[in-house]
Every structure is written in C-alpha cells, then in structure tokens.
Write a structure and sequence with these properties.
This protein has about 290 residues and is an alpha+beta fold. The chain folds into three domains: about 120 residues, Beta-Lactamase; about 110 residues, Beta-Lactamase, CATH 3.30.450.20; about 35 residues, no CATH class. The protein is built from eight helices and twelve strands.
Length: about 290
C-alpha cells in the first residue's frame, strides 16, 4: 500500500492520470468537479460538441450543467448508501456507461463520489446487432447449431432446433435443454474422426446423413470465420429426413418395378404433353423401331 507522503501521492496521481479508464471526482458541498484524469479529458475532447462546456474547462464546473433534473443526481450522490450505482446514459448520439462509487477515508467518512465511465455506443450497437441476428436465427425455419473448434463445445442452438429435437429427446445422450455446453463427442462412437473434420476449415463445407435411432438426419457443416478470416467455429444446419428418404426409397422401388414389367409404359403430363417417363421395356421395344421414330 502507498504511504501518505507527498512523493507517494504524486506517484498515485500520475498512475490514475495515465490509467486507460476515465475517472472524475466531485465534492459533496456544491457538487463541483474537482478532478478529471487525462484519459477523461482526451475522451471528452472526442465528444466535445455534445457537451455544455469545453473539455478543458470541466474541472470546477458543477455537475448540474449535465442534468435536466440536478436534484435527482444531488440526492443520489449525497448519500453513500446509494452507491455503488451503475447506469447507461445518452449524450446526443453517444451512450456512456457510468459507475459511481463512494470514496471513504480511514475513519469511514464519505469524502466524495468517484465516477468511472466509458463511451459504449459501438458496444451497444454491436450487442443490438448480435441480438437481432440471434432472434433471426431463432425464428428461421431451419435447424442451426454452432460449436467452437477448440474443444468442440456446442455454444448455440436455435429455437427451431430445440423444437425439432424435443420429440427425438429419447434418442439423444442428453436432454434438449442441456445441449448448449455439451461436447459433440457424446454424439459419436468415434469422436476423433469428427474432431479431425471439424478442427480444419479446409474440410468444410461437408454434407452427410447420419442415423439417430430410427431417424435419419441430413447435416450440412460450414466454417464460420472472423473479420481477419480466422476460423472461429462451425455452423451445423440440419433437418430430419427420415420420411423424405422413405418416400424416395418407395419411389425408387416403384420405378424399378415399372422398369422390370413386361409391358411398355410411358407417362406424359397434360399441360404440354411432354413425355416424362419411359420404362426400360419401352426403350428395349422401341430400339429396333428407332429408324421409324
């Protein structure tokens, strides 16, 4: 701990002055700003057009000039039991994140409030954009999951996936609501194979059908990259194709049966009378007559 000597106090002030955090102090008598570190001055200069005073003149200014209802702030700051207090406030087009804490001396006396603050406009916009995107993903009629490539943990499951998996929960190694945070290894008998694929974005995109009990899932895995092109995770889009495959298999069986029938069969559609199907027997029968066609 620093000793209370002039040298130590000067050192302490230099430390606070050079901290990459905006710091302000005000007195409790008339709520005038008594100290502003250099980082605050530099930051305020960037938004000076939004201030009621110039950044260089802020020390000695009463905080009332920043508020429409000064009595509210005075009551808040005047009582240390109200602190710490945190809030986001609007200043023109900018958003500031404020944290006010009480400075107490060795005797427990409330000396003054200290404000640490930062401009969080871009952070708030990014959070809002992320929230919008997450809501869009949640509402999309596509099953989507995201996992990170370091330890293959599932970090996101959209609402559609949750709803689709709910009827298949008895086939899963964990509850649907517990999927986020699980390692994908629990879904595979040979995890090293999947890890080898997912760990290298060069292997992606990849499509595959997998069995889950009596169900068949069609998977599409794509690489998600950051601004610099770095691999930050894999996105899995998928759907249950059990009934679709059964229908395709039934259609294939029927087509094979028609092909093998000892009867010439053709099919045409009624709009423009285009022939859309000829069975193998028709082809075999027509081949010797081709010169007449």
């Amino acid at each position: 701990m620093l000793k209370k000597s002039p040298i130590d106090m000067k050192l302490f002030e230099q430390m606070v002055n050079n901290m990459p955090v905006n710091v302000m102090l005000c007195d409790l008598k008339d709520f005038r700003i008594t100290y502003v570190n250099q980082t605050s001055i530099d930051t305020l200069a960037e938004i000076e057009s939004l201030l009621p005073i110039e950044a260089a003149d802020i020390v000695g200014t009463c905080i009332d000039v920043f508020h429409k209802n000064p009595s509210h702030q005075r009551a808040l700051l005047g009582d240390p039991s109200n602190l710490p207090w945190q809030s986001n406030i609007k200043l023109g087009d900018e958003t500031l994140d404020l944290l006010i804490t009480a400075i107490i001396d060795d005797k427990g006396t409330y000396i003054c409030p200290m404000l640490t603050w930062s401009i969080v406009t871009d952070k708030i916009k990014a959070e809002e954009a992320t929230n919008r995107q997450e809501q869009m993903l949640d509402q999309m009629p596509i099953n989507v999951m995201f996992l990170e490539p370091q330890d293959f943990t599932i970090t996101y499951v959209n609402k559609t996936s949750t709803e689709t998996l709910r009827p298949l929960e008895h086939l899963l190694p964990c509850k649907v609501d517990d999927l986020v945070g699980q390692c994908v290894d629990i879904f595979h008998k040979n995890p090293s194979h999947q890890r080898g694929i997912l760990s290298d974005p060069k292997n992606l995109p990849m499509s595959s059908n997998i069995k889950l009990g009596d169900e068949t899932l069609a998977l599409q895995v794509d690489a998600i990259t950051g601004k610099e092109g770095e691999y930050i995770g894999a996105m899995l889009s998928w759907n249950v194709v059990t009934e679709q495959l059964k229908a395709e298999e039934a259609t294939n069986r029927q087509e094979q049966m028609l092909d093998q029938m000892p009867i010439n069969v053709m099919f045409l559609e009624p709009e423009n009378f285009t022939i859309t199907y000829c069975n193998q027997t028709s082809y075999d029968t027509l081949r010797p007559l081709e010169s007449l066609l």
